[in-house]
Design goal:
With about 170 residues, the chain is of the alpha/beta class. About 55% of the residues lie in helices and about 15% in strands. It has two domains: about 50 residues; about 110 residues, 3-Layer(aba) Sandwich (Glutaredoxin), CATH 3.40.30. The chain contains six helices and five strands.
């Protein structure tokens, strides 16, 4: 905060020194105009970047032993190990899992959703991560008849990678 304040003060001093009070007034007016234009643009384009979908998916607690049972029954399992404090996890939710087509795909009847919430330390989730050679989150996996051993997804999810893994697990 201190460095930003110093830079703003230097910019103001430079404007006044070079252009006088008139330059300062026009500079400030330009910033206000730029902010207004940005706000108007954001308002009119919000339908393209605001996620209207709420997380109403049927998440069940992560149960490593149950994954193999679900796969044997012909189901696909999507595992999400996350935490409220994990910014990348939140970005994955807002940018991928809570947006179509992934959101709709995760509601298919043959998909079981399992979430490990690591917001507070949990030894079962820590053990699951270690068993999968992971030390941190986010961690997502997809299992199914076509992927009985599971497929680890990349840390930063993409729509194409998630849909592709879900399709691969179905076979």
């Amino acid at each position: 905060m201190g460095l930003a304040s110093l830079l703003v003060a230097l910019a103001i001093w430079s404007l006044v020194r070079q252009y006088g009070l008139r330059g300062l007034i026009f500079g400030f007016a330009g910033l206000v105009l730029l902010g207004a234009v940005g706000g108007i643009a954001a308002f009119f384009t919000q339908s393209h970047w605001v996620s209207p979908v709420k997380d109403e998916l049927n998440w069940q607690p992560l149960d490593a032993d149950r994954i193999a049972q679900e796969v044997a029954a012909g189901k696909r399992v999507f595992v999400d190990v996350t935490a409220d404090w994990c910014i990348t996890c939140q970005a994955n939710k807002v940018g991928v899992t809570l947006r179509d087509p992934v959101y709709s795909a995760l509601q298919d009847d043959d998909i079981v959703l399992m979430r490990g919430d690591w917001t507070r330390p949990d030894s079962a989730i820590t053990d699951y991560l270690h068993a999968n050679h992971r030390a941190g989150i986010p961690f997502n996996q997809v299992f199914g008849p076509g992927l009985p051993q599971g497929k680890d997804l990349e840390v930063l999810l993409t729509t194409n990678k998630v849909i592709s893994a879900l399709d691969e697990a179905k076979q």
